[in-house]
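This part of the workshop introduces the protein records we will be handling. As an example, a complete record with its sequence and its structure tokens follows.
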Amino acid sequence: MPSKLTRPASRHPLPARPAAFGLSSLHTAHIAGLSAEKALASLNSSFDGLSKSEAGRRQREYGPNRVEEVRRKALGLRFAREFTHFFALILWFAAALAFLAEHLDPGQGMGQLGVAIIGVILINGIFSFWQEYRAERALEALRELLPQQVKLLRDGQVEEAGAESLVPGDVVLLEEGDRVPADCRLIESFGLRVNTATISGESLPAARHAEPDRNETPLTARNLVLAGTTVVSGQARAVVFATGMHTEFGKIAHLTQTTREATSPLQREIARLSRLVAALASGLGVAFFLIGQAIGLPFWDNFMFAIGIIVANVPEGLLPTVTLSLAMATQRMARRNALVRHLPAVETLGSTTVICSDKTGTLTQNRMTVKRIYADGRFVALEPEGVAAPAGESIAWLLRAAAVCHNVTFGSRNGKAEFLGDPMEIALVEWARCAGWGAEGSRKIAEIPFDSERKRMSIVQQDDIRRTLYCKGALESLLAVCDTIQHDGRVLPLDASARRRLLAAQDEMATAGLRVLAFAYRHLASGEEGREERLTLCGIAGLEDPPRPEVAAAIERCRSAGIKVVMVTGDHPVTAVAIAREIGLVRGEAPVVLRGDALPKMTRAQLQLALDAPEILFARVTAEQKMLIVQALQSKGEIVAVTGDGVNDAPALKTADIGIAMGIAGTDVAKEAADMILLDDNFASIVSAVEEGRAVFQNLRKFLTYILTSNIPELVPYLAFVLFKIPLPLTVIQILAVDLGTDMLPALALGAEPPHSGLMQEPPRPRSERLLHGPLLLRAYVWLGVMEAAIALSVFFHVLEEGGWRYGRMLERHDPLYLQATAACLGAIVLAQVVNVFLCRHPSQSAFCSGVLANPLLLWGIALEAGIIVLITYTPWGNEMFGTAPLQADVWLYMIPFVCAMGAAEEARKWFCRRFMAD
């Protein structure tokens, strides 16, 4: 591949009325074989792109530049899946048994039970499908916040626009990290290499240039870049010749767009819990049936209640609650500038123990200005506007290098004219222009792009007299290729003394928190290749990128939450330490600072031991070294979140448990590799997202505590019925009314709770911790559940005694007194669960500490719960369906002291835990 490209002197003007043309007639081999000028002419375009009016006309003709998504499972199949998962199959089996019992012995109420169970399956399935579908649509809407952006020329001006707006004939600008948005023919190229793995399967980057190519296929043509490939290095200007489904990528979309989400720890835990609970429910049903048979209960009564036990212990709302909790957390994260790309990643983020963060733009504001320069052996003062004074030969060369050695373009963003590109390069260009230096009168003819190994970039600039190579980068990198230095208008040998002075000046700037860059140049002889050797160093510049004001507080929140923050930067070690001290990341006198070049020399054990240091920073780190750090942390059992913005960060983002890409400065490659995208590139947003992720796991525990509590007052009445020969306090259909009616929406509301205030003062959840653990079971079954059972039986016996019942007397199923007593038992459980939903909002903090209005869904749930129990108790339909009778007001008044005592007892337990059992 040629090392340089001469830009054509003449350009074809944009025709006022382009002739009609069609993509189908434009063969890719034909356009590859044309010169750049002829390729543009064949598309009725020019080096300055299309006019806006012509682009609009072509958009209407060719449609949006969008590849159709791979076809998902049919909506009907996805709907049917909600009725065939593990919990649903248990309920179908229970319904079948009920209908079989009704057929063998009619009139025992088993048919009614079967209908009720099927109704439960349908309601639960429809709700689950609706919730999952709604969460899916919400995620799609959130993803649209970050459409792929491209730089293109319209009417000769650089603009940023969505990739979907591209049309054939558009001229786009490509640079390192960009995903190619359409099939394009290169018309200018500087050191371009493209990763074509998505199209060809070839893992090694391929060089591309703008010269005519006679290859027959688009995959082998060296002057074509295809949609879906990524730019690994270099820059280019290219004209679009195919969009949307007409691209090579569109033709194989069904092969390349398969999406497969990895199973998250939460998904695996839910699957384990599902099996455990299903086995427990089935085991209890069989056990109670056998007990009933052993003591001589009527077969069908016993069989009916065994089915009820199975149904009562299946947490039908668990799966929709998981989806709801994740979806609500995702939407809250989006409002806090964190866009989640994969739903299960939400909870994984909450388990994070280490965050490996970039410095520039994440911990800092990414708004750079030149603050100090060092030239002619001394520091030079800058005016407030950044103009160097006094001027000298060395400073002039430094300014000239800053003005031309960059990839900045001038265009518009959101309708505002401004420089577009890397903030550091923009700061240098603005500084040079403010001092009166620009790139006018010369043109770039070649470039050696920046890469993380060399830590420098070079361009070759042609003016009327000569060609000159300008280079900028890390001082250590330039010292390796420089042999002379500008000093007071003379070019002197770069001896050891001068090198020491330069390194000392760099350290002084870095200690002040400045990012340091060195500049050099060399005149090229006629016909000489532009190589980075025998350069003349002209000076160094220190740029300030102030920390974000909110980062210090976010670092402190991480520290209190037990999350370790590790800065991983390509900057100078001294600069990294200075910024780390300013934001509170480093407090000690001697933090461990490891340079990237030291990592390959360390064994894995040495690196893991080094990571035990309480304060550690990594500087001058390459992409491969960043991935080594992530892998070493994972080997120590840490759950690692890592930030990145460049194409070279993609391996680390993929390797990490949670990859976090920058939404503003991030490349398309980084965003594709990440699980989460920061819309504001702000470290504080990561901490907020961790808080939301932690809330998901806590909310699922709240849900389980709430629904498992009601299992005890459903089981204890049956035990009392069996052991003490009393009327059955609660019927099967009434159990279903609690589990699948009154409890459902309040339980779901607990799954949507916002994070509580003390969540980020708790340590990260261990990787091995289970969702259903001992303290939860003890609290639900042994403490809250027993109190609810006692309340329910007390109210049941109170109504019986008020009606003249005496022990030993059995009541008929339709006896008015029995109907009232069971209605009272059911009402007591529901009223206790109203109190319990507030008690379950936190395992140790008082219920009065959580604002009721913070979760409006909770209030709706309680309102629905109250409405259902009123319908069951006071309507003829409810009385007939659920075997109840209307209750007098004094019965409800009798319940109130008991449920208040339950609330007081739980509040006392929480106080005791806070007072005597706090860590």
About this structure: The first helix runs from residue 28 to 32.
